[in-house]
Amino acid sequence: MPSFSMEVKNELAHFNESNICCLYAELSALLRMGGTFVLNMRHHLGINFSTENAAVARRVLAFTKGLCIGEINTELIVRRSRRLQKNNYYTIRVLPSKKTNNLFEKLGFIDGNGGFNMGKDGALLSKYCCKEAYLRGAFLGGGSVNRPDGGYHLEISTSNYEFFCQLDVLLGQFGFSAGKTMRKENYVLYLKESEAIISFLRMIGASQILEEFESVRNLKEVRNQVNRLVNCETANLQKTVDASLRQVKNITELLKRDSIDKLPDTLRKAARARIENPDASLSELAQILGIGKSGVNHRLRKLEAMARSLKECEK
User: Model pTM?
Assistant: First the structure.
């Protein structure tokens, strides 16, 4: 069974992006996430992009060839992972050439002075649609999200600090307050609130998977609410039982030292009602005695006070 992250990425990898500016933005973030650059003797750049998701690999290959109109040389290498899951591992090699240099300039990897831009892609992010595409590429390349029936957690992880800062700024512009941490040598941005995760997934285009997410989330919240109510009811019941046992004990001790007939009529009735109905709540005792709940509580407290006074006098 594929992971929830895999399901989300499979949907995003089929997102129909028609704006050329957004294609550049998404591909730039994807390659920054999963790409390793190579340089040949003529100072032409190439890149090796790796992923475990076949749909993401196809998307990178299609974007790369589409933006270069098929004028670059690419290779696709598929190998078996050595990890326990034994998933296929896909590597797309874009061979160095003059055409790839032109592509990387448009993607923002090469700045105007011929230097290498580590992660500041402001030129690609002038429009909000491009910012959304950029975040979609970052998630496809290095993101993950838990199933909502577990704990809520979405994260994007990268080893590139400047790219990490760029993503943090972008998330802030969309109103997301992402947590930040380091895991081994990677910088991690994460969201923990269910509403924030839903908003993020909706923004980057995972609309179909959100139906399952929200359905499971709602079921989880109902289950948690029921558990809270049950726990609250159990706690209240325990308090009622403890109070009842204490009252019966004190009233019994009181009656051992004094005749019930010597008590005022109101207290005598309350004492008998409590002893004869040790499991009853205050509301049930109120119905038996035909008085209000506060009146029952007042009389039982008075009986307990009398019992304590007798004990103190005996001491």
Answer: 0.69
